[in-house]
Amino acid sequence: MSQWLGSQNYSHQTQLVGAAIVGGLAAAATIYSLQNLRRNVALGDLKASIPPLSLLKLTDFGGASLRTSTNKEDERNAALAARARRGDYDDELIMEQLARNRVFLTDEGLHKLRQSFVIVVGLGGVGSHATTALARSGVAMIRLIDFDQVTLSSLNRHAVATLADVGIPKVHCVRKRLELVSPWVRFDCRNELFRVEAAPRLLGEWNHELHGGEDRRKPDYVIDCIDNIDSKVALLLYCYQHNIKVVSSMGAGCKSDPSKICLGDISNSTDDPLSRSTRRRLRVLGVKEGIQVVFSSEKPGPGKAELLPLSEEEFAKGQVGELGILPDFRVRILPVLGTMPAMFGYAAANHVICAVAGYPLEYRVGDKSREKLYAGILAALQTMEAKLVKSITGNIPLGLRIPLNLEDVAYLIEEVFRGKSVISGLTTRLALVRWERPSDGYQVEPTWEKEGQIFVRLGLGELVCVTKEEAQRHEREVLRGNKSPEDLYAQEVLHLVSKRQQEELSFSRFR
Asked: Mainly localized where (predicted)?
C-alpha cells in the first residue's frame, strides 16, 4: 500500500516539474520573441536613418561630407540663425549678450570685433575652445577649416561635441552648437584638410554665400590649431609670407601645469617637441621670429605622461607611414589631459580678441622660472651700488646690501619691463641699473643704519632694465659722469621709461 502511495506521489511531483519546464520554455520563447522584435525594430530605424548612397558622399580625406542628422529642434535653431544672419534679430539683444565685453573693450573695441573675420584651422580640443570664445565674444565672421570627424575620444577635450555628434564633421558640429549661442555669427565651414596648394582659397577673402558674396574682407587673424607638423609649417609660412596675422598653438599633449602656459614669439618657445620642430623647420625656410605662439614651458619629469614608442606589433604590420589614415599623420594616441587644450585655445582666442579690438597686449618673454638669471642680476646690481658708494665715501661699508631680493628682481624684469631692455628692446644679457643720479648722492639709508642694517638707499621705481653693455655705459656716463638721461637717450626711450615708472607705482599697490 505504501509503495503504491509513493508511486502516486512521485507521479504528481513529476507532473509539477514538467509543467514548470514547459512554462519556463514558453516564457523564454516569449522573451526571445520580444527581444527579436525590438532588435528588428531598432535595426529598421537604424537602416532608415542611413542616407541613400546617392546622398552619401565622402571627402577626399575619407570623411563624411554630410553636415549632420537633423531633427525638428535643429531645424528650428537653423531657421533662427538664418533669420539672425539676415538681420532679423534685435541688435539690443546682441548688445545685452555682449555687455561684459562692451564695458571691457569699450564701444569702439567691440565694434571692431563685431566687424572682424577670423579663420580657425583645426577644430579639435584647442580649436573648438578658441572658436567658442570668438563666437561668444562677438566676432562676426568665422571660417572653420578641418577635415576630421567627431569621435568618442574627442569628447574628453572638445568644447561643444556631444555623443549625438560622433561621426559628423567637426566643422558642422561646431557651427551647429555655436549657432545656439550666437545665432548672428556667420560661419563658413570648410570640411577639408589644410594644404599649401589650397592656401589662397582657404585663407583668402570672405565671400561666403551668407553674405551674398559682396563682402570681400580679408582675414583679420588666423588661429592655427593644427597638430600635424607639415601642415602647421606650411600654414605659418604662408601667413608670414603674405602678411596675415596668425597665432599658433603649440603642443598641449603631455602637459599638465597651467601656470607654465606662455604666449610670445616663436623664437622664445621652449620645452615642447612640436614647437621645437616647427621652429627648426621655419628657420630653414628663413623665418626666425615674428609669429605669435601659445606654448608651455613645462619640463618633462619622472611620473609625467610621455609619448611612448610604437610597439613591435605595430611595426610588424608594415611601414609606419602606412598605418595612418593620411600620409604623415601620427599613428599613436597622444596623451592629453582634457583641460590643457582648452587653456591653449582660450589663450589664442584671447590674443586675437584683444588684438582686433585694439586692447593693449604686452607679454612676459621667455621662461617664467629664471632664478639663476635673477640671482645674477641681483649680484651685479649689488656690486655696482657698492662701487658707487665707494666713489663718494672712499670705502665700502662692511656688510653693505641693497634692499632687493630675487622676487623684486623677477617682478621688475618680468612684470614691469616685460623681459626687455627699455633702451634697445633686447631680451638677452639683462641687468638692472639706476636711471638717474640721486640728488643727495649714493649713501647708506640712515634710518636703517641706526638699527644696524647697512642698506643703500634704493627704491624699485628708480631702476630700469637694460642689457649689461647698456648698464656699463649708463653707469659711466650718467651715474658717474656729468650727463643726464635726456642728454643720452632718444625721446621714445625717455617716454617708455616714464611709462614703466608710472606702471610700477600702480603695480606696487597690489604687491
From this structure: mitochondrion
- Per-residue pLDDT of 431-448, as tens digits, reads 999 999 888 777 776 665
Residues 183 and 293 in one domain: yes
Which of 58-67, 157-166, 472-481, 501-510 is the least confident region? 58-67
The single-letter code of the amino acid at 209 is: E
Q: Where are the alpha helices (DSSP H) in 328-463?
A: 339-357, 371-393, 406-410, 446-450
Residues 209 and 231 in one domain: yes
Cβ–Cβ < 8 Å for 360, 351: no
Domain around 170: 72-304+336-357
CA distance 255 to 272: 9
Q: What angle do CA 348, 350, 355 make, to 5 degrees?
A: 100
Report percent pLDDT > 90 for the chain.
43
Amino acid at 118: V
Residue with cell 638699527: 451
Q: Using CA atoms, how far apart are residues 165 and 151, in angstroms rounded to an integer?
A: 8
* Rounded-to-integer distance, Cα 139 and Cα 105, Å: 13
Radius of gyration of the chain (CA): 34
Q: What are phi and psi of 280, to 5 degrees?
A: -65, -45
DSSP state of 189: E
* Whether residue 351 sits in one domain with residue 406: no
User: Rounded distance, CA 105 to CA 365, Å?
Assistant: 24
- Tell me the three state secondary structure of residue 56: coil
Question: What is the C-alpha separation between 248 and 263, in angstroms, rounded?
Answer: 10
The number of folded domains in the chain is 2
Tell whether 353 and 400 lie within a shared domain.
no
In terms of domains, do 414 and 351 share one?
no
Please answer whether residues 260 and 272 qualify as being in contact, where contact means their C-beta atoms are separated by less than 8 angstroms.
no
The answer to whether residue 58 is domain-embedded is no
Taking residues 142-156, what's their average pLDDT? 92
Decide: 124 and 94 in contact? Cβ < 8 Å: no
Q: Are residues 387 and 466 in the same domain?
A: yes
pTM for this entry:
0.67
Contact status, residue 66 vs residue 56, Cβ threshold 8 Å? yes
Stretch 173-190: mean pLDDT, rounded? 92
The residues, ordered by sequence, that sit 6+ positions from 48 with a Cβ below 8 Å of its Cβ are none
- 141 Cβ contact partners less than 8 Å away, ≥ 6 residues apart: 116, 117, 118, 185, 186, 188, 206, 208, 211, 215, 217
- Residues 426/470, Cβ–Cβ less than 8 Å: no
